[in-house]
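#lab-general

N.A. 3:47 PM
ok so I finally got the sequence cleaned up, no stray characters, all 466 residues accounted for. can someone with queue access submit it? mine expired

B.Y. 3:52 PM
send it over

N.A. 3:53 PM
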Amino acid sequence: MLLESCNKNEFSIPSSVVAGWTEESHGNSVSPDYDLVFPQTMVNTITINLGLDSWEKIEEDMTSLSGNAFGTGGGLGGRPNQGGGLPNGAPPAGQPGGGFNPGGGQGGAVSIFSRDPIYVGTSISFNDKTWEHVGFRLKGNSSLSKSWSSGVYKLPFRLHFDKMEDEFPAVKDQRFYGFKELSFSPAFNDPSLMREKLAADLFRNAGIPAAQTSFCKVYIDFGEGVKYCGVYTIVEVIDDTMVESQYGEKDGNIYKPESTLQSFLESQFEKKNNKEQADFSDVRTLVERLNSSDRLNSKDSWKNMLEKVFDVDHFLNYLAINNTIVNWDSYGGMAHNYYLYNHKGSLKWIPWDHNEALSLNNRSINLELTGVSSNWPLISYLAEDTDYYQQYRSNVNSFVNGAFEVSLVHSMIDKNYNLIKNYVIGAEPEVVGYTYLTGSESFENGVSALKNHVESRYETAKSFSK
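B.Y. 4:20 PM
back already:
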C-alpha cells in the first residue's frame, strides 16, 4: 500500500517501497515506450480514479474560473450515474456529421480562462498496474468551456505523473513508461473522433515533427463509480518527450506562445523549459527581425537576417500542409496552438492541437494566401515575397503528390475507423452525457464528411499547385 503522506523535510522514500513500482513502468531512467503508450494497431484502456473529493475540488475551481457550475449552461449533460445509449436523432442542420457545435466567436489570442485549472490527485490503472498520486487537471479553452457548461463528462484533461511528489515523496520522479505528462483530447466538435490523430500523422508523414498520438478508452470514477467516458486521443506533450524524440535533444528554449508575432510581449511567450535563465532573446529577435523596416527597404537583408534565427523553409512546409488540410484554429486564425523550439540556434515551428483540423471555417486562410491581414505577419510578409511564395506553392504540390494522396489518406481514415468503431457506436458505445455525438449516425456521417473533405481539398490543392 502506498504511503499516504510524508514530512517534506524528511529524506525521500526509495521508490522500491511503492507497491507495484518497477523502473520500466514507473521509473525515470528508461526511454519512453512509444510502442506501448502510443500503439497504432490497438486501442489502450486507462482507468482514472478521481473520487468524489477530487471531483468536488475540480467543480469548485471550475465554477470560480468559468462563472458557472458544471452543467448549468444546458446541452448534452447528465449526472455520472446516467445510463442509456446514444440518441437516434438526425444530425443538427448545418453539421455534416452531427456533433457538438462550439458556437461562434472571432478573434485571435483570446483566453476564456484567466489561468489553468488546478491539479488534483488521482490514481491511474493501466495493464494491471497502478500509478498513485498522479496530478490530474482539466485543460483547453473553448472545448473546456463548452463541455463544462453543457455538463459533458468527456472533458479534456492532462496527466502529470510526478506533480504531487513534494506532498508524496514516494512518487518522486514517477513516470508512465518513460512519459512524465500526457494530454487527453476528447474529440470536441469532431464527430469522426480522429482529426487530432489524422492531422498529426499527416504532418509527420510530410516531414513536419508533431506529437505522437494514439486512441484510448477512458474510464473515470467521479465518486459514484467508474463510468465509460468514451474514446480519447492521447497526445504526446511537446516539452516532455516530443522535442527530444524528434529533434534528438531539448537543450534549446521551448515556447508555447499566444502571440500574433506583431510585437514582442514576454507574457505572450510561455517558457516551458530553461525557466531559471529567463532568456527570451531568441524569440524577441525573431519578432524584431520579422517586423523590421528592412522588409521594405532591403528585402535580401531582411530575409537573410530572418533566416538566421528562424527556419523559414520549415515554416513554409508547415504552412502548405496546414492550409491544404484546413486547420483554422491555428496561427492565421487564432494566435495559439503552436510551439517554437530553438534547435541549435534556429527556431522551429511545431504544430499543436488539431481537433478542429480538416474542417472548413470562416477563419480559414485561403490556399492562395490572398488577403491575409498584416495582423499575421509571419504569413502575410512571407507571402509577399516571390521566392517564398513559390516555395510555399511547391510545398503544396509535394504534399498533394505525396502524403496527401487521396487513397493514402482514406486508408488512414479506414484504419482509424476500424480501430475505434466498436468503442464509439458498437458493442461498447459512447453514451449520453459522456459524448459529443448527437446520434448513432453522427460518427458514420462524420467519417464520411472527413473523407469528402480530403477529396475536395486534394482537388483544390492540386489545381492551385500546377
